[in-house]
Amino acid sequence: MPLSYLDALERIRCEAEQDAIAFRSGFERLSIDKAVSRISQVTYRCHEATPKYDTSAMDGYALNSAATQSATPETPIIFRVCGTIAAGDEPLRIDNGTVSDIPPCVEIMTGAPFPQNAGDRQFDCCVRLEDVTAISVSGYPCIGIRKPATFQQNRRLAGGDFSPGDIIISAGQVIQPSHIMALASVGIMEVHVTRKTVVGVFSTGNEVERVCRRGQHHIADANGPYISASLQAQGSEVDFLGTLEDNSDAITHGIRAASNTNRYDVLISSGAVSAGKYDFVPSALQNLHVRQVFHKIAIRPGHPVLFAKIPISARKAVERGVRGDRYEVPFFGLPGNPVASAACLQFLVAPYLKHLQKQSPEPVLEATICQFGDSKPPDRALAQLLLKVPKDLDVFRPGVTQRRIADHLEVTPLEHSSWKVKPFLEANCWIHVPAGQSDVYQGDTVSILASH
């Protein structure tokens, strides 16, 4: 009896967590402008309060709010302008000798530090430029305030944004543009990130060509480019290693050579994993004395998928940073039909890579299944049967999802055959029907995952 999908996922998790011990020891140091979408290796915290000083939220005048309480349009309060301070300047100090019988104020720009107090006159607010009248008194520049100001009006307090010890990004988080803004605002301009996973990708088959020549009965290689592009979109560095010929020796040699380069965290092939006359990947792996984790699981499409660990020498293991008794390179053998290969990449390879990097799995959403333009019927007895699948298999189908109202999602299954690429092009998600469910009716709730 084939291994269940859930059991396969558990084996993948266990293998990935073992492999992660060596993988997570590697890191890179990057400028933050090159760190978007990378995984932070460490937790970064703010070391000092931001802003460092009380700063102005407006262009205007810093002054003492208590001195304005009797201000009216008919009897404005006059302040003498004793200086100007811009963002980036050191805080300005107004000495007692600078102050006359007219209360002082300081012209201040947005982001500039508030001036230090003048005697018992505290600069505790900012009146914006539009709310003052510029005048001259005895040749001195002054302003008139025509309405009372409030305490700490338009004043940003020191530490009002980040406080010392605040976490900017935690170890294991994917760095987003918002993290870059926060890191830069607290003066962190370089970060340590987990190195990218490096994946080697093979296609297989004498009939497969990257570019088909006119008049020949060859098949264009869709899997190699798709697998490479999808993994790159998910953050991996990918090498396409070519197409392996349909014989056991060639496949054995190609896989052995790649595993011995000491470069790849994972190797992936597509095609030649079933039980046909030209399915040589299983026998090639036997030649390499692999440890087979599983071969054939209870899913559709993708039933013949294979996961194995290729042994490498102890010397190469040490070069890779591996410690312990297992010196192995993970290998996924995916089916040859394009949509089957894509399903196995999404539901088996991607979880392995997520666990390897200590990342959360792809979010699973719920949606109401329906036909295009239809709504949920009022009576299940009237509902149309949309999917009939084997009850003993986990089934994956391409679908199109759309948001109808609020957070309610609806999904429509597309025509499916594992060799047809056109329906997959139109899809934006996968529908997952778990083992134990065979009939899916219009209006039923199903699980969906975004497709890559």
From TrEMBL:
It comes from the Eukaryota. One of its GO terms (molecular function) is molybdopterin molybdotransferase activity. Gene3D superfamilies: MoaB/Mog-like domain, MoeA, C-terminal, domain IV, Molybdopterin biosynthesis moea protein, domain 2, Molybdopterin biosynthesis moea protein, domain 3. It is an enzyme of class 2 (transferase). Keywords: Magnesium, Metal-binding, Molybdenum, Molybdenum cofactor biosynthesis, Transferase. Transmembrane segments: none annotated. Residues 200-355 form the MoaB/Mog domain. It holds the Pfam family MoeA_C. It catalyses: adenylyl-molybdopterin + molybdate = Mo-molybdopterin + AMP + H(+); molybdopterin + ATP + H(+) = adenylyl-molybdopterin + diphosphate. Its cofactor is Mg(2+). InterPro entries: MoaB/Mog-like_dom_sf, MoaB/Mog_dom, MoeA-like, MoeA_C_domain_IV, MoeA_C_domain_IV_sf, MoeA_linker/N, MoeA_linker/N_sf. GO terms for cellular component: cytosol. One of its GO terms (biological process) is Mo-molybdopterin cofactor biosynthetic process. Its EC number is 2.7.7.75. Pathway: Cofactor biosynthesis; molybdopterin biosynthesis. The keyword Nucleus does not apply. Catalyzes two steps in the biosynthesis of the molybdenum cofactor. In the first step, molybdopterin is adenylated. Subsequently, molybdate is inserted into adenylated molybdopterin and AMP is released. PANTHER family: MOLYBDOPTERIN ADENYLYLTRANSFERASE (PTHR10192:SF30), MOLYBDOPTERIN BIOSYNTHESIS PROTEIN (PTHR10192). In the N-terminal section; belongs to the MoaB/Mog family. Belongs to the MoeA family. This is molybdopterin adenylyltransferase.
